[in-house]
Amino acid sequence: VQAEAPFRRDGERYAVELSVELRRSLRGWAEDLRELVATQDPSSDASLQRLFPPAYPDDVLQNLDYEETTHDELRDARVASAETLIRTADETSISEEELLAWMRTCNDLRLVLGTRLDLTEETTEGDFAGDERASETYRAYVLLSAVVETIVGSLEADE
Amino acid sequence: VSPGVAPAEIREPVDEDVREPDWPWIVIVWNDPINLMSYVTWVFQKLFGYPRPKAEKLMWDVHTKGKAVVANGSQTEAEGYVARLHAYGLWATMQRDR
Predict the structure, then answer these.
(1) Option in B52, B79, B86 nearest A74 (CB)
(2) Predicted TM-score (pTM) above 0.80
(3) Contacts of B86 in chain A (CB under 8 A)
(4) ipTM for the assembly
(5) CA quadruple A142, A106, A131, A45: dihedral sign
(6) What is the DSSP track for A1-18?
(7) What is the pLDDT along chain A (159 residues), one digit of tens a residue?
(8) Is the dihedral of CA A45, A50, A53, A58 positive or negative?
(9) If contacts are CB pairs under 8 Å, which of residues 42-61 in chain A contact chain B?
(10) Which residues of A touch B95 (CB under 8 A)?
């Protein structure tokens, strides 16, 4: 995230100043996330399970009830947010609702990538030396972290 | 009536084993290595309307103690909170307040 204020409040909307490359990356990652969330069953993928944690970790039956009542809605909201980012990735001005969709999608991606990398609070890029694929995933994770951080900063600036 | 001088609520004595109230459910957010501190603080403010110092304190509790109770209510209310926290990617669970 190179610009000084990549997301900046502009009246009722937010100005977005990001490089073409980063916009392309964000759209591509959001497309991957939409595909994962919309088509895969959480039980088939640990990183997807992270997006749908149990409400009742010690009560299987209660938790089945919870999943039954919430899963589809949570899934559809995630897909809708990803689609908002995909649709508006090239915009230089987005609404607050669209900005929140960007934030949630980038955070969902961090959860998926971070779970795949088995991150801890002490993880650094050096931990993936020699593994080009994992290094690339980690660099994406770091970029997404910067995007989420700057979006939160721009929302806080409104308070 | 100022909240400070309201008389204490008078309750009928009840048998703790028989009473099955619907309200004592607590919502817990657990520490995870991925969600950003700034993001977690923002989510607490947004979802619960907590002022920033309270949201920050809860975030620090999550970060340093491994978890924090962020809300309570009836089972239905607690499930609603948990679902909204899950929508924002936080690791939230609920349990009876015992």
Answers:
(1) B86
(2) yes
(3) 51-53, 55, 70, 74
(4) 0.94
(5) positive
(6) --SSSSEEEETTEEEE--
(7) 555 689 999 999 999 999 999 999 999 999 999 999 999 888 888 899 999 999 999 999 999 999 999 999 999 999 999 999 999 999 999 999 999 999 999 999 999 999 999 999 899 999 999 999 999 999 999 999 999 999 999 998 765
(8) positive
(9) 51-58
(10) 56, 58
